[in-house]
Design a protein that fits this description.
The protein is mainly alpha-helical. The chain has two domains: 87 residues, no CATH class; 168 residues, no CATH class. The protein has 14 helices and two strands. Strands 1-2 form a two-stranded parallel ribbon. It is globular, with a radius of gyration of 29 Å. One of its GO terms (molecular function) is SNARE binding.
Amino acid sequence: EWESLFMTEKTREGSIESSKEADTDITWSDDWDEGWESFHDEEPVQKEKSASSRSIHPLHTCWMEILKKLIMLSRFSELVRLIDQSLERPDVILIDEDDAHNLSQMLIGSDCFMALKMTLLLPYEAVRLQCLDAVEGKLKQGGFPGNTDDKVFLALILSSGIISTIISKSSYGATFSYLCYLVGNFSREYQQAQLARITQTSRDDKEAEVFHLTFRRILFPDFVSELVKADQQILAGFLVAKFMHTNPSLSLINVAEAGLRRYLGKHLQELEAHNSSAEARSPEILQNTLSSLEVKLKCSIQSALSLLPTSL
C-alpha cells in the first residue's frame, strides 16, 4: 500500500514537471491578451439578454386546461385573478400564443369584452388586436354595454399599453368613446364619494373606497398622461378641469392646459413621496397588474410633462 502511494505521488510530480516544461516551450506573442477587453464589454449585454428573455411555462398544457375549465364554468374573475398572479414571474408566460388564441376564440363570440381582458394579461399582440377589433365592432353595433362600471376593463386597457393604439387610431373610435365614458363615470362617483365624506353621509363601503383611491392615484392620472402623449392635450385638460371640479367659466383652453400641467406635476410629487400598499389597490383581482402600472406611472407622467409647454 505504501509503495503504491509513493508511486502515485511520483507520478503526480512527473506530470507537474512535464506541464512546466510544456509551458516553457510555448512562445507567447505580445498580443496574447488581445480580445479580453472586448470580452468584458460584451458580457453585460449577454446578461441583459438573458434577463429580458421570457419563456413559456413548462406546464403550459396543464394551465391551458385549467383556464379552459374556468371559461366553461363562466368563472371569469378566477380566470383574471389566476393570470394576474402568474405575473409575479414576469420571465415566465403561463400559456403560449396558440393556446391564447384558442382560449380567446372560446370567448370572443359570446363575450368579446372578456376575451379582450384575458388577452390583455398576455403578451401576444396579434391576439389582443383581434379581440380589440371584436370589441370595436360590438360597440359600433349595439352601443355601450350594460356594464358601465367595468373597473377591470379600464385597468387592463391602461396597464397593457394598448391605450395608445386606441387613442391614435380612428378605427377604434367607439372603444375610445367608451373609455372616456368609463373615466367620466368613475370621476363622478369619486366626486360624489368625496362630497358624502365631507358631509358625513357616506356609506361604509370599503371596496368602493379602495377603488376610488386607486382611480384617483393610478388610473385617472395614467389616462390623462396617455392623452397628452397622443397629442390630445385639450381633452386631457378638460378632463382634469372636470375632475378637479373647476368652475365652468374657467374651462378655457389656456386655463385648462395650465391646470393640466399643474395637476400632473403635483401628482408626480405625490407618487415620489408615497408608495401605496397592496391593500390600497382595487380591483383586488388585479394586484400585480396595478402594482406594475403604478411603477410605470411616474415615467408616463414625466413623459407627458415634457410634451406640455412650460410657458403656461
